[in-house]
Amino acid sequence: MRHRLSRKLLFPADFQLSSSQPSTTKPKTETVYDAWLASRELTGDHKGEYLVPGAPRALNWRNARLAFFVTRNCTPDFLRVLWGLNPIRTTLMLTLNIVRSLFPAFRGYSQALIVDELQNLIASETFTWTRLVYLVSSEVFRRIVEGCLDSFATSNENVVFGSARFFIEYKQMEQRVKLDVPTLGDPIIRSLLQESDLFARSFGGGGFGFLSPLEFIHILSLITEILSHLFLIISLTRGIWHLGVLFLSIFSSMLPLLITWFNCRNSPPDTPTDAKTAKAADRQERLRNMAYSDIYRPEIALFGLGDWILKSWSRARKIVLASEQPLYGQYSSILNQFNVNEIIAIIQNVPLLLLFQSSSTTLGSITIYRSSIQSLVYAVGNLVSTTRMVFQGIFLMSAFTASMKLKAKLKPHTEEMIPYLPKHGGVSLTVKGLGYTYPGCSEPALKNVNFTLNAGESLAIVGFNGSGKSTLAKVLLRIIDYDKGSLLVNDAELRRYDPAEYHSHVSAVFQGFSKFNTTVKENVGLGNVDKIGYKPVIEAAIRLAEAETVVQSLPNGLKTMLETPGQDPWSYFGSCSVESSQRQGLSGGEWQRIALARAFMRANEPGVDLLVFDEPTSALDAHAQNQIFNTLEKISRSPSGERLKTVVYITHRLSTARRADKIAMMDNGTISEFGTHEELMTLNGSYASLYRASL
Ligand SMILES: Nc1ncnc2c1ncn2[C@@H]1O[C@H](COP(=O)(O)OP(=O)(O)OP(=O)(O)O)[C@@H](O)[C@H]1O
Questions:
Q1: How many CA atoms lie within 13 A of 533 on its CB side?
Q2: How many CB atoms neighbour CB 51 within 10 A?
Q3: How far is it, in rounded angstroms, from Cα 70 to Cα 566?
Q4: Which has more pLDDT, 141 or 429?
Q5: What does the pLDDT look like over 597-640, one tens digit per residue?
Q6: Is the CB of 469 under 6 A from ligand 1?
Q7: What's the rounded Cα separation, in Å, for the pair 561 and 581?
Q8: What is the pLDDT at residue 650?
Q9: Does the beta carbon of 445 sit less than 6 angstroms from any atom of ligand 1?
């Protein structure tokens, strides 16, 4: 931990939030997660539904209790983190905030003294200038000190907030990359992460984010400011007459606030409206993306979607804009029927008139009364709006805190976890009664899948569209879980391996492989990040994927930045435009070769026992296709022909399938036929008829 006044941001991995675990199984409001979830629950007609992510919580007793619970549980952690980032700067920030909040009261007092002195100058003939010069110089000095302190405090705050922002963003990223597909697929967790993102973003734009619960410090300084004004006002108040004038002044200055508050209370309950608005805001954004992103451009043109997008967007946009309009027309109080501002101005002047009537009152007193009371009311207004923002921020903070404690669903409990058990010749797979249903679906994608594959064997999975081939591949790769049956990898249940460890022993090409918005070198090298800096290894992987000619034809070879369809808004204007002259687009087949090279980066490693390739050559010509399968065969065997790796591939080309040791024919989520090509041809079932049809 650093105690120097360093401007350097601290590395947040050094700091930890409290390690107490949230549990979704505990009764209500036992954890921050429970409080977050409860704050999103709608009541009344909407019971059982949840607010959309980011929608403000209604200001009611239930939510106030939840906010208190969250504050009690999270704020000490956050303040500890802030303190840990830089104790000296944080102490300075807190102190300077308090000192700064006293400035306005001093300002008013000093100005009142000058006004009094000027009044003396006008009224008295024996006046000496010395005192006035002294007062004016003190005022100038006060302003200089105030200015210096202000700029030092701001720059100090920027460093503290910068560190806090970095910490929050780092933690957010760290957690995001740890979570797996099933965890991210859970709709409640997605909402949690969305609100957690909002929390992290609330730190953006310099200084404290508006939604930041760390605005508590702001609240503290506002309270100090209010107290200092009150102290000043009370110290100038002598006798019952002044006290009456004081209360009248405060009341008249607070009238606008009271009227706004009265209007707010008469507004309709905001929850359902907010949910509807938030949905509209979300739809409006998606439609805007559709209109702006080039990935959709060909289909928008082809299907003539322009008008539909525009109409749908304008409908959603109108809902959002309507929610931003003040509700005066609909819900105004009777007070609003008059010109309220004029009435308030008249009332505010009454105390001044009363002060003028009083013989003991000086011009300075009037100035200080007026400025202090107005500053006081302004500070109270500011306090109310900051408190409202903090109220919403507290729930976003709860989302952040709860999301930090999320566990990847696929990771086994420590007591169940076993180290990966390597087997000579690859992995053996024993699948019994395997089933899987995607979250939210009623029909299983996999049901009663059974097969056995020995270490080092190759398996081709074939079948109709939607029969479950890719789902089975994802289960084998431990990208998704299975909810029925068992899957033994090297005779141990796959669930018992740490997914990260298991993944280090497999390599794959997915059907919808990634097209990274970076150089060719990184697109390939990411298959084995430990060797991303080794050019010969990358070149070898490119050769295995038959992608040398693709790379050679690129303007900067391996260093060429690849243009990812849909990521660059101007990509359809071609690679030759000025903006994208440094980027290069690739054809579907060329991208597939890059994805294959990425998989070969890792597949070639000795510790990799299982290769799963989902339609790896669907975009390649027949010659390239053959070459790739030759390569697969080559890398899965030693030079002497000994089997080293198990290979599973999905294909619609049955001439390719027959190269495998075993073939699994999938139909409606299950394996309907399993065996060698010859066995399945003898069976004369679906595979045989498909095969004959493909000839
Ligand atoms: N993410 C998902 N969420 C819900 N259902 C899904 C998801 N992915 C696939 N499915 C469904 O699961 C079933 C199996 O899909 P899968 O992609 O495994 O089929 P496939 O045999 O690989 O098809 P294809 O040959 O067209 O690639 C389909 O009915 C599909 O609609």
A1: 1
A2: 22
A3: 41
A4: 429
A5: 999 998 988 889 999 999 888 888 888 888 888 899 888 888 88
A6: yes
A7: 10
A8: 95
A9: yes
- Nearest residue to 105 via CA among 408, 345, 371, 310: 371
CB-based contact 104:143 (threshold 8 Å): no
Coil, strand, or helix at residue 200? helix
In DSSP notation, 445-494 reads SEEEEEEEE-TT-EEEEEESTTSSHHHHHHHHTTSS--SEEEEEETTEEG
Q: Alpha carbon 479 to chain centroid distance? A: 22
User: Once rounded to an integer, what is the mean pLDDT over residues 317-322?
Assistant: 80
Question: Would you state the pLDDT for residue 578?
Answer: 38
Length of the chain: 695
Query: Residue 104 half-sphere exposure, CB side, CA atoms within 13 Å?
Result: 26
- 242, 233 Cβ separation under 8 angstroms: no
Give the three-class secondary structure for 60.
Answer: coil
Test site for ligand 1: of 449, 471, 667, most ligand atoms within 8 A of the Cβ: 471
Ligand 1 pocket mutation, candidates 470, 481, 482, 513, criterion most atoms within 8 A of CB: 470
Mean pLDDT of the chain, nearest integer: 79
Average pLDDT of the residues in 258-282? 63
Give 178-184 contacts, CB < 8 A, sequence gap 24+.
Answer: 178/408, 179/406, 179/408, 180/408, 180/409, 180/410, 180/411, 180/479, 180/499, 181/410, 181/474, 181/479, 181/480, 182/409, 182/410, 182/439, 182/480, 182/481, 183/406, 183/407, 183/408, 183/409, 183/410
Q: Residues 121-152: pLDDT tens digits?
A: 767 666 566 777 877 788 888 888 888 888 88
Structural domains for the chain = 82-241+333-405 (no CATH), 426-497+634-694 (3.40.50.300)
- pTM equals 0.73
Q: Is 365 in the pocket of ligand 1 (CB under 6 A)?
A: no
Q: Would you state the structure tokens that stand for residue 118, as one six-digit string?
A: 């000027």
Residue 61 structure tokens: 């007793």
User: 438: Cβ below 6 Å to ligand 1?
Assistant: yes
Give the tokens for residue 469: 């081939």
Nearest C-alpha neighbor of 392 from the set 11, 18, 59: 59
Ligand 1 and 470: CB distance under 6 A = yes
Whether 568 has a pLDDT exceeding 60, the answer reads no
Whether the pLDDT of residue 9 is over 50: the answer is no
Ligand 1: residue whose CA is nearest its atom 2: 438
pLDDT digits (tens, 9 = 90+) for 366-389: 666 667 777 777 777 778 777 777
pLDDT in tens, 645-666: 999 999 998 988 999 999 999 9
Helix (H), strand (E) at residue 598 = helix 588-603
